[in-house]
Design goal:
Number of domains of chain B: 1
CATH class of the largest domain in chain A: Mainly Beta
CATH superfamily of chain B: Glutaredoxin
Order of helices and strands of chain A: HEEEEEEEEEEHEEEEEEEH
Number of strands of chain B: 9
Helix content of chain A: 10-25%
CATH architecture of chain B: 3-Layer(aba) Sandwich
Distance between the termini of chain A: 62 Å
Largest sheet of chain B: 7 strands, mixed
Strand order of the largest sheet of chain B: 2-1-5-4-3-7-8
Structural class of chain B: alpha+beta
Largest interface: A-B, 43 and 46 residues
Strand content of chain A: 35-45%
Radius of gyration of chain B: 19 Å
Number of strands of chain A: 17
CATH topology of chain B: Glutaredoxin
Distance between the termini of chain B: 47 Å
Oligomer: heterodimer
Number of helices of chain B: 6
Helix content of chain B: 25-40%
Number of domains of chain A: 2
C-alpha cells in the first residue's frame, strides 16, 4: 500500500515537472502505470554536427514486460514519435537482445525489469552560440503480465550545445555501456551461417570454430518460425545447429532468415543467413510457388 | 570427412527431434480445410462448423477486457462488421477462449447481457472455457480473425486490420483485412493478403 501511494506521488511529481515542458498525458489516469520511462543522454552536451546517443529507459513493475521489435506470438513493440528542434534527425531504435517470455501455449520476445532502447540523434552542424536543445518524444507501449495495458508518456530532455568535445554523463555511462553489451553484434570474422529449408522446419547452421554451451534464435520477422515450439539444438565441435519449426502462417519461401542468435556466454550475434531449399519441399511451398 | 559425417548425424537427429515434437496433425493453414469443431454457444445451442458448408464463416477471437478488442467495440466497428456481413449471409462466430478466473471469461448470461448492451450482432458467441477450440485453431490473440469459404477452406488468418494499436482513431485509416478477404473471395478473386500477424492481447488460456 505504502509503495503504491509512494509511486503515485512520485508519478504526480514527474507529471508536474513535465507539465511545464510537454504536458502530462496521464494526469487523469486512475491507475499508476506499470512502466515508467525516462529520456536519458549519454553525454552532457551536444556538439553541433556530431551524432550522439540517447535512450528510452524503461523501468517495469515486477512481473510485467514490454516487447522486442518482433514481439513473438502476442504483444506489440513500443513506438516513439520524436518532436525534435529544427535540423535534428533521429535514427532507428537499436534493440537489445530480448528474452524468451513463456506464456503457455504462447512464447513472446521482450524485456522484464528494465531496458534501455538506444537511439542515435543527429544534430545540425550550425547552431547559434550558447543555445540549448529541447528533445521531446511521445512514447506508446503495451505492457503485459497476465493482462495487457497500453500506456503512453511524453518525455523531454534539455541539453546545451557546446563546441568542445562532449563529456560523458557519469550517472548514465554504465547503463549505456551495459546496454551496448546486449546489442546484437555482427558475426565474428571466420563465422558463417546458412539455413536449410525442410518441409516443416528450418535448420540454422552456424560455423563458429568454438564450442558453445547453449544457443537460442530470435527471428526478426514474425510468422517465419513457430515461436512457441522448442528449438532443438545440436552443439557440435565448432558449429551450432538449430532446428526451428516453420510457422503454419508461412506461405512463401523465404530467401534469408534474419534474427539474433544468443549463445552461451550471453553474446548476441546478428544473423542474416541465406536459405537453401532442402530435400522435402513442403506441399504448401509447392502450391504457392509461381 | 569425419566432421561431415558427424554433421549428418547431428542433422538427422534434429530432423527426428522435430518429428517427435510435432504438436498436432491438424495444422491450421490458409489454403487448406479449416478443422471442423463443435462448440456450445451462449444461447445453449450446439454449433458445428460442418453444419455451415456453403456459407462463408468468420471466427472472431474475443476478450472484452482486452484494450485492442475494446477499441473495436467501443467504436462500434466490430458490431458494424457483424451486421453488414451477416446481412449478406455470412456466419459470424465470436469465440471466447478465456479460462474461468482469467481476463475475459464470461458465463452465458454475462455474455448475452454484453451482446445486448453493445448491440453486437454475431450469429452466435461460442463459449470455449476449456480452450479446446482456441487450441484447435492455434488462436493467439484477441482480436484474431479467421475467414472460411463456402467450401470449408481457410482463406484468411490474422489481424482484423492493418493498424496494431488500441486507439479508436486508427480504425478509419486502417485496411480491414476481413472485409478485403470476404470481398475478394465473394468476387471470385484470390485473397491478396491471406495471412497477417494478429495483433492484440494473448488469448487467456487455462494452459
Amino acid at each position: 500500500m505504502g509503495s503504491h501511494l509512494g509511486r503515485l506521488g512520485s508519478r504526480r511529481l514527474t507529471c508536474l515537472a513535465s507539465l511545464l515542458l510537454a504536458g502530462c498525458l496521464r494526469a487523469a489516469s486512475a491507475n499508476p502505470p506499470h512502466a515508467r520511462i525516462t529520456l536519458v543522454s549519454e553525454q552532457t552536451s551536444i556538439q553541433p554536427g556530431s551524432k550522439f546517443w540517447v535512450g528510452l529507459h524503461f523501468e517495469l513493475e515486477k512481473h510485467w514486460h514490454i516487447y522486442w521489435v518482433n514481439p513473438g506470438d502476442s504483444g506489440e513493440p513500443p513506438r516513439v514519435v520524436w518532436d525534435l528542434p529544427q535540423g535534428f534527425r533521429a535514427g532507428p531504435i537499436n534493440w537489445p537482445a530480448p528474452r524468451r517470455l513463456e506464456n503457455p501455449p504462447l512464447v513472446d520476445y521482450g524485456y522484464e525489469d528494465e531496458v534501455l532502447l538506444l537511439v542515435p540523434l543527429y544534430p545540425p552542424s550550425r547552431v547559434p552560440a550558447g543555445r540549448s536543445a529541447e528533445l521531446r518524444a511521445t512514447v506508446k507501449w503495451l505492457v503485459c503480465s497476465s493482462i495487457c495495458v497500453p500506456e503512453q508518456q511524453h518525455v523531454a530532455l534539455k541539453l546545451p550545445f557546446k563546441d568542445d568535445p562532449p563529456k560523458y554523463d557519469p550517472r548514465r555511462r554504465g547503463l549505456f555501456n551495459r546496454t551496448r553489451e546486449q546489442l546484437p553484434r555482427p558475426m565474428p570474422s571466420g563465422w558463417s551461417a546458412t539455413v536449410l529449408s525442410e518441409a516443416n522446419q528450418f535448420i540454422l547452421s552456424v560455423k563458429t570454430g568454438t564450442r558453445e554451451s547453449t544457443a537460442t534464435f530470435f527471428p526478426l520477422e514474425p510468422l517465419e518460425i513457430k515461436d512457441a515450439a522448442p528449438q532443438q539444438v545440436a552443439l557440435g565441435n565448432g558449429a551450432i545447429h538449430l532446428a526451428l519449426q516453420k510457422s503454419d502462417q508461412l506461405l512463401k519461401p523465404v530467401a534469408f532468415l534474419s534474427g539474433v542468435l544468443m549463445i552461451g556466454d550471453g553474446k548476441a550475434i546478428a544473423i542474416n543467413a541465406p536459405v537453401i531449399s532442402g530435400s522435402g519441399r513442403s506441399l504448401r511451398e509447392r502450391r504457392y510457388r509461381k | 570427412m569425419k566432421s561431415a559425417m558427424k554433421r549428418l548425424i547431428l542433422l538427422a537427429g534434429l530432423s527426428l527431434a522435430a518429428l517427435l515434437a510435432a504438436p498436432s496433425l491438424w495444422a491450421v493453414r490458409v489454403g487448406e480445410p479449416a478443422p471442423d469443431f463443435t462448440a456450445t454457444d451462449s444461447a445453449g445451442k450446439v454449433q458445428k462448423l460442418s453444419g455451415y458448408k456453403g456459407k462463408f464463416v468468420v471466427l472472431e477471437w474475443h476478450n472484452r477486457e482486452c484494450p485492442y478488442t475494446h477499441k473495436h467495440y467501443i467504436s462500434g466497428n466490430m458490431q458494424k462488421l457483424q451486421r453488414e456481413w451477416t446481412a449478406k449471409g455470412v456466419v459470424w462466430f465470436t469465440v471466447i477462449s478465456s479460462a474461468p478466473g482469467k481476463q475475459g471469461y464470461m458465463t452465458a448470461a454475462e455474455e448475452n447481457a454484453y451482446v445486448e448492451k453493445m448491440k453486437a450482432a454475431p450469429t452466435a458467441v461460442l463459449l470455449d472455457p476449456t480452450g479446446n477450440l482456441g487450441h484447435l485453431y492455434e488462436a493467439k490473440a484477441t482480436p484474431q480473425m479467421f475467414v472460411i469459404n463456402p467450401q470449408g477452406i481457410l482463406i484468411y488468418d490474422g489481424a482484423i486490420d492493418s493498424k496494431p494499436t488500441a486507439e479508436v482513431e486508427d480504425i478509419a485509416s486502417a485496411r480491414n483485412y476481413v472485409n478485403l478477404a470476404l470481398e475478394e473471395s465473394m468476387a471470385g478473386h484470390e485473397v491478396k493478403v491471406p495471412v497477417t500477424r494478429p495483433y492484440g492481447c494473448s488469448v487467456k488460456y487455462a494452459h
